[in-house]
Amino acid sequence: MSENFRSNGAKKIAGDEHICALKNPPPIKKRLIAIYDALLNHFGYRHWWPGDSPFEIIVGAILTQNTAWKNVEKAIDNLKRKKLLSPKRMQQVETELLAELIRPAGYYNQKARKLKAFLNVLFENYCGSLDELFKLDTPKLRSELLSIWGIGEETADSIILYAAFKPTFVVDAYTKRILTRKGIVDNDAKYADIKQLFESNLERNIKLFNDYHAQFVALGKNICQKVPICGKCPIRSL
Length: 238
Ligand code: SF4
Known about the structure:
The chain has helices spanning 28-43, 54-63, 69-81, 87-92, 95-101, 108-126, 130-133, 138-146, 153-163, 173-181, 191-201, 206-222.
């Protein structure tokens, strides 16, 4: 197990005064399951990721980089209005027009080029078919997605889990913040360390991975914010 995971949870975490780590926590597997159960009990099943089709989910995963979801929704509404939420139609549209339509999501020129980079690979290697792309096994699909300009680990894993329905754990800033404050990982834990923590301790179950990530989003957005509201936190005592 990486040194970035902690089993005793008692170490002081530099740079974060909001620590809720336990002095004598149970083994990590039990702890991760207990955290999920408490979050599920508090927030209910999250039905994440919002999107009417795998392609819409891919577009959302790229557009949500460095911006709030409400901005992505406006960009997606614009694309829907122009009937551009299909690989073929989006491939045919000029990059400049695409950028204009996704402007509400921020970094719109860059994100339009990222969408086009994804589509270029999709059409060059898979005849424009998501079904063909998703025939790859999870490691090959992940490495194909990571080879595309503008797709990093979080975006690739979101696409694999929510659009391709394959088991991979998505790690985002909320996940890292909560785990750091719980004393489960160190501040310098890498994406791969946190992903491995979940994948090696939990059953590789698509529904569980799907909803666990969504529960962290709910906790990070509503309670474990930059200034956490610990009094309302369902996992404070775990
Ligand atoms: S909100 Fe919850 S997870 Fe976040 S610091 Fe407070 S008790 Fe810990």
